[in-house]
Amino acid sequence: MNSLAVVLGLLSAANFALGASLEQHAAKQERQTRTLDPRLILRLLRRPLWLFGWVPDAAGTVLQAVALNLGALALVEPLLLSGVFMAIPVEAALERRRPHPRDAVVVAFGVVGLAAFLAAADPRPGIAEPVFADWLRVGAAVAVLVAVCLVLAWRVHDAARGVLLGVATGAMYGIAAALLKSVTAILSEHPVQVFVHWEGYALVLLGGAALTLNQNAFQGGPIAAPLTAIALLDPLVGVAVGVTAFHESLSTAPARIAVQVLGVLAMSVCIWLASTTRSR
């Protein structure tokens, strides 16, 4: 396990947590819009707090890119879940209140589940650049998941809506992280060729859509609901893409597989608990 990649991944998570808290605080002050409505972004561009949230976001992206260049996708992406726990006290400070105990329990439950999964999985690096057919397969699977979440999100409100949009956003971020890893590999070897590869353009388009959806998720309820879903789905999709497209390997020992399954179940319960959190 690459120690430097772990440290950079944790620093990236801390920056994303700060950025997400600032952006969510600004997004909640806007009236709710239709899902993927670009006018929300245009209104948020007039809010200094939301713009300031891009500073730690940018720093987190750079740290994530370096970490992905050093370590496996299945190693770096799960580390981002630690940002959920960091975001809870930041949100409370912005709203001048104490963190809600249930929110802390939810995210702690998710952290324990994912930490157990990561320790048992023991991810190891694979190839640097997947073949196009593998990209198509993982892209189609994520597209179906996102579509289902968007349809269901139209029918619910508050924390449940935030969780569904958070699941969709997290899945898109997971694919975006895989694209970022591929683009980083191209940049490190042949910087000029990044302009003739499709991965960079797909990363920009997917990142823009995920950003808009992310702000929709932040509009209703406390930050624990959407951010927990985002932070859980991002690494889960990252691990799936790492194994299927980048051919990274996970431990297949029976005892370790059992722990991995328990970790996934714990994270699933965490998402359900987050969806039942009420706005305060």
TrEMBL record:
Transmembrane region(s): 70-92, 104-123, 135-156, 163-183, 195-213, 225-247, 253-274
Keywords of the record: Membrane, Signal, Transmembrane, Transmembrane helix
Annotated coiled-coil segments of the chain: none
Signal peptide residues on this chain, from the entry's feature table: 1-19
NCBIfam families: DMT_1
Name this polypeptide is given: DMT family transporter
Organism: Plantactinospora siamensis
Organismal lineage: Bacteria, Bacillati, Actinomycetota, Actinomycetes, Micromonosporales
